[in-house]
Amino acid sequence: MHVLVATDGQLDAAAVAKFSAPLAGSDGTVTVLTVIEVPRAMLQELQDHFSDQQPPKLHMVDSETVSTGAAEAPRSWPGDDAIIHQYLDNKRDQICSPLVAALRETGVTTTSRVVEGQADRGILNTAEELNVDVIVIGAHGSGFFEGLLGSTGAKVTRLAKRPVLLLRNSQ
Question: How far is CA 23 from CA 116, 130, 133, 161, in A?
């Protein structure tokens, strides 16, 4: 069985392993997924990370285009796409690693993945792309407004074309 575990970094690794490993079985696979919205404003954070390279300040040309304002990016500047890919890879490692480690300890084949975009769409699209058998996702809140507005878990549960297991954090 192929299990997709969607996380924002708040899921308890032991709980995920406890429920997901038996679902996958000894010959199954678990894919740990995190979905990151990459607002262009986060480029400032990335520039700070690469500050030793003295990149020019970036500014928005329109809602989707970021420009350095220079005719050519400075030498050794990795470029916006490279920075975003590195940022996403770092976030994947940071968010997914505890779950991947816990699942691998159970002997289950485990991979991790990061997708850029809106959480619910990213989870649903990845579930379809990988043709997973079940989606495991955390249910964090219990407040009135979350139920009224719709959490990611609620949206995925409503829209998924496959079973969804909601794990509530015990806090």
Answer: 27, 16, 9, 18
In sequence order, the 6+-apart residues with CB closer than 8 A to the CB of 42 are 87
Q: Which residue has the tokens 């350095």?
A: 68
**Alpha helices (H) along the chain:** 13-24, 43-49, 80-105, 119-130, 144-149, 152-159
Q: How far apart are the first and last CA of the chain?
A: 30
pLDDT in tens, 71-109: 455 545 556 677 778 888 999 999 999 999 999 999 999
Alpha-carbon distance values, 74 to 21, 53, 149 (Å):
48, 9, 45
Model's pTM, two decimal places? 0.74
Three-state SS at 164? strand
- As a whole number of angstroms, the distance between CA 136 and CA 12 comes to 12
Q: How far apart are CA 124 and CA 93, in angstroms?
A: 21
